[in-house]
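User: Assemble these into one structure.

Assistant: Restating your components, then the assembled model:
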Amino acid sequence: MRMVIKGNGAVAHAVRLARPQVISAYPITPQTSIIEGIASMVAEGKIDARFIKVESEHSALAGCIAAESAGARTFTATSAQGLALMHEVIHWAAGARLPIVLANVNRAMAPGWSIWTDQTDSLSQRDTGWMQVYCQSAQEVVDSVIQAYKVSERVLLPTMVILDAFFLSHTYEDVEVPEPGLVDGFLPPLDLPQKMDLEHPAALGNLVFPDRYMEFRRKMDLAHQVALGVWDEVGREWGELTGRPYGLVEQYRMDDAELVLVTAATTASTARVVIDALRDEGVAAGLLRLRVFRPFPADLIRTILADRKKVVILDRNCSFGHHGIFHQEIKSALYELPAGQQPEMHGVIAGLGGRDVTVEDLRGMLMGVWEGRITKPVTWWNVLEAKGAETGAVAMG
Amino acid sequence: MAIDITTYDPKNLHLPEFDILHSGHLACPGCGAALGMRLALKALGPKTMVVIPACCWAVINGPYPYEALGVPVLQVAFETAAISASGIRAALDAQGKEGITVLAWAGDGGTFDIGFQSLSGAAERNDDIIYVCYDNEAYMNTGIQRSSATPYGAWTTTTPVESPKPEPKKNMVEIMAEHRVPYTATASLAFPEDFVRKLQKAQSIRGAKFIHLWSSCPPGHKSEERYSIRIARLAVETGVFPLYEVDYGTKYTINHEPAFTDINEYLKLQGRFRHLKPYHVENMRRNIEWEWKRLRAKVEMGEKLPLPPAPVHAPVDEGEHTPPAK
Ligand SMILES: Cc1ncc(C[n+]2csc(CCOP(=O)(O)OP(=O)(O)O)c2C)c(N)n1
Ligand SMILES: [Mg+2]
């Protein structure tokens, strides 16, 4: 059924179709309309679930962890400060191998208070063992939430489905929302191999001595490796059902591209306009959009970027004291290429705290690198430099 | 109507014979928390699911792949005992699984301090769980640091004898009762039948139930293992730890009228109080007196107050919903 809905509405509809049994969530801008939508659907009987209206995000995820441990499919959603507050139990969910699905609306971290988009919140959770999918459209949000349940439940890892604040969460789009029957055929009911069960009493989460702990973690890492293939397979299967196939990454005009922009999320739509324009002007430009970021498709990305001339990696985030996080990850993936196949790589940090990344910005970065005007490994795009900042002791202004 | 627990014979207890806590657990000798769990599962039976946050019990249950409890156990993050029990209840309800008791079993630190927020949330939502706080009056698992349940004057590693804890213990039962949950109670290891009755009463009520179990801890209280029950009894008999229950935050019932034994009898069995000066003890006495005045006043007030009004249910045909105000 076609609907004109926002990114947040897309999450709510996908959750409805995935038939979670327990929802446990807490409001935060710009995520709130997801759980408001879900609350209405539960109240109207469109979702047959218990909705625990918790007192914090920490409890939101802790509630999902317990409910999932007792055999129920669960959902929660949050953003920025809420995601950070969950951090302890974000580790817990993955370590307990619970296939929880969480929608995170990318929002910058305070201080200063910002409700606008940037990726620092979700990328700060990179090493928790969660899978992460960055979406570029409301359609992809619907499709990814449903796929996330399927992949998560196959490999017993939780998934964060991530959408940009406002650019995606609050922008209306024309979306094909699948029929319940289609999703029911695609996503069987949850059947966990291990859960709280009176017939088979066991302790979940007990103390683990050093002689066993690493084996648990090794299995988690293996599951991530397996998940790469599962995302691919599930994305293809979804394509056969709906005509909308998905891969781990998306390539746009990449066939003979010599200049590549790597980015994720909604910036990719702006980027396509720029790539088309550059192509018209005779520059062999292409776009590589990161979609599944954990597990990280390093081999695939290495193959795609080998032998390109120049690569610009746009990060809407920063690992302070080092590079943007996508930049670091891509560099490490390409390290194994022989020197002759290594592209020249430039990181650009842009759009933090919701600052627009416009067509002109992207053109400026790409042509700056292409024409050799940008030579530094990392560039902070379009920032006002404050007087005296080079001393390291100026924080504002 | 409470049974008379003042006259029972400790050598002839009326308790269920079966045990769900098995031998081989990792509790210290004389551990009140282990005995408490044993009694709790005797009371609640095998159709119980147990939530354990970080606390001594996270260790007592045994390391992977063992467990000492014969019921499903979920170990959870320190501050999440209550919400975890709520989550399990929601999952059971969603799957149509009935007749299962969900027990959150947390220490005083996990209840009075770090888990307080999530506990208050579960109580406010009146989620159908039993929450037992076994209170050994400090963070014992991390090696005896003060919590807000540590009594006035006590030594802990963060309230050393030169500067023992200056504040009295937080009154958790009154705080929980003020959430107007259907049932809150205190309990003592020295009064096992009373504890079992309270658990079974809690099990028979739908909604959030809170039981505060005073719990001996030989290593943490610097007491002798053989005195664990004696100290628990003296906590009650000196008036330090009143045994009472509260229905709907309204009706307060004292379950045992203490002998008001000299508090020194209680203090002298515990090394954590050895440094106390007479003025400390005097402050304790005065505080006990004051707390008992408060408690008796609440009993009196409860006698004058009705229990909460019975709810009026929606008519079968509710008609149209009025949309919210714009
Ligand atoms: C978030 C967090 N902070 C601190 C700890 C460390 N920690 C584990 S148990 C514990 C003390 C528990 O005290 P209490 O709840 O009274 O239980 P007891 O150990 O006395 O049985 C602490 C501080 C933790 N596990 N998690
Ligand atoms: Mg304690």
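The mean pLDDT of chain A is 97.
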